[in-house]
């Protein structure tokens, strides 16, 4: 199967974030709560348009992928997240970038051991 030309591919943005919570959370907990928060705030259709994916999360920091046209909505849904597994928590967005490498170098420079999982 042929690959899409770069001009036809969906454009993405990568949000670097940190978890501030009472207790540590797993990647699966983060994924579940981010999608739930986005769905309750934006609705199912807009959440689908945001195309949110958590690429990596460890040690309280992570990288999230979203559509370039829906960065504001994605950030709003992350700000609306207040609980993870019933414990008080919030996700603080450190910044947005056009590449995973850029997001890691700019915003996660203090976290050198972080390696996001890239899925295609």
Could you walk me through the main structural features you see in this protein, from its secondary elements to its overall organization?
The protein has 120 residues and is α+β, with helices and mostly antiparallel strands. It has one domain (12-107): Alpha-Beta Plaits (2-Layer Sandwich), CATH 3.30.70.3250. Helix content is 33%, strand content 30%. It contains four helices and five strands; from the N terminus they run βααββαββα. It has helices spanning 27-42, 44-50, 71-79, 100-107, and strands spanning 12-21, 53-58, 61-67, 83-84, 87-97. It has a five-stranded antiparallel beta sheet. Strand 4 and strand 5 form a beta hairpin. Helix 1 packs across helix 3. The longest helix has 16 residues, at 27-42. The radius of gyration is 14 Å and the shape is globular. The chain starts with 11 loop residues before the first strand and ends in a 13-residue tail after the last helix. The mean pLDDT is 90.
Characteristics of this structure?
120 residues; Alpha-Beta Plaits; globular
CATH superfamily heading: Ribonuclease P, Pop5 subunit
Element order: H for helix, E for strand: EHHEEHEEH
Largest β sheet strand count, sense and barrel closure: 5 strands, antiparallel
The SS-based structural class is: alpha+beta
Cα distance spanning the termini: 14 Å
Ordered list of secondary-structure elements with their pairings:
Elements: E1 12-21, H1 27-42, H2 44-50, E2 53-58, E3 61-67, H3 71-79, E4 83-84, E5 87-97, H4 100-107
Helix pairs in contact: 1-2, 1-3
Provide a short characterization of the protein structure.
The chain is an alpha+beta fold and 120 residues long.
